Amino acid sequence: MPTLDRDGVKIHYEAHGAGPAILLTHGYSATCRMWDGQIAAFKDKWRVIVWDMRGHGESDYPTDRAAYSEDLTVGDMRAILDACGVERAVIGGLSLGGYMTMAFHLRHPRMCRALMLFDTGPGFKKDEAREAWNATARARGDKLDAEGLAGLGTSDEVRQSRHRSADGLANAARGMLTQATSGVIESLPGIAVPTLVLAGANDKPYLAATDYMAAKIPGARKAIIADAGHASNLHQPKAFNDAVGSFLATLP
């Protein structure tokens, strides 16, 4: 599979199928393998592009903490689309990948044909709430420093992922999972492309965020997947794919 060199950091990506492009970004501590069910479901009609974020999976694990940030992640997404010769795509992601999807739209709206936001949130307007989130993210990094890969736990998306180093994941928690500004949440009313906002019914921490995004993004479509948690595509793949397929079928 191809890799992209981003100033000495190799980024793993894959492109499956042919047709209009979809770029899918995984959640923190997962890898592109979480999208295998979507690749199989949509590659006959769509070009499904997936990738591993820096510090994850088959991508590089730079030791410099400055090599991990929201800006660099969005830059990686742009570079992957450029490498694939894609000028405009459906941009989607789960959890951290969903947040980065909104961050990508904020910087590159003309490259977004549509957005798909799965089990995610848009960040925080208030500095105090953002700092509480950031403290939790930094604590995840500290846990990985202390416990190694065992500190990841045993969630469904983690169990099917393979990582080579806890150091990169710890740096990703501090540099990519943390949020510096309210730019993403403030951008929601300006999203002018079709948007699907989806969550598992059992993903309690993200249901309020799902309602908020669906209300703030003009014309957004909301879908709640029954009997699914945070990794809704893994818990209920048929219902997830049906919701995504129905949304994709409406795109101009």
Shape: globular
What's the arrangement of strands in the largest beta sheet? Answer: 1-2-4-3-5-6-7-8
Briefly note the CATH topology name.
Rossmann fold
Fourth CATH level, the homologous superfamily: Alpha/Beta hydrolase fold, catalytic domain
Strand content: 15-25%
Query: Measured on Cα atoms, how large is the radius of gyration?
Result: 17 Å
Give the terminus-to-terminus CA distance.
Answer: 31 Å
Mean pLDDT rating:
96
Low-confidence runs: none
Top-tier CATH class: Alpha Beta
Structural class from helices and strands? Answer: alpha/beta
| Series of secondary-structure elements, N-terminal to C-terminal | EEEHEHEHEHHHHEHEHH
Percent helix, as a range, is 40-55%
Number of domains: 1
Give the assembly state of these chains. Answer: single chain
Individual helix count: 10
| Largest sheet properties | 8 strands, mixed
Would you mind describing this structure in some detail?
The protein is built from ten helices and eight strands. It has a single domain (about 5-120, about 185-245), classed as Rossmann fold (3-Layer(aba) Sandwich), CATH 3.40.50.1820. The model has no long low-confidence stretch (mean pLDDT about 95). It is an alpha/beta fold and about 250 residues long.
Write the layout of secondary structure elements.
Layout: E1 3-6, E2 9-16, E3 21-25, H1 36-42, E4 47-51, H2 70-83, E5 89-94, H3 96-107, E6 112-118, H4 127-147, H5 156-159, H6 166-177, H7 183-187, E7 195-200, H8 204-216, E8 221-225, H9 232-235, H10 237-248
Parallel strand pairs: 3-4, 3-5, 5-6, 6-7, 7-8
Antiparallel strand pairs: 1-2, 2-4
Helix pairs in contact: 2-3, 4-6
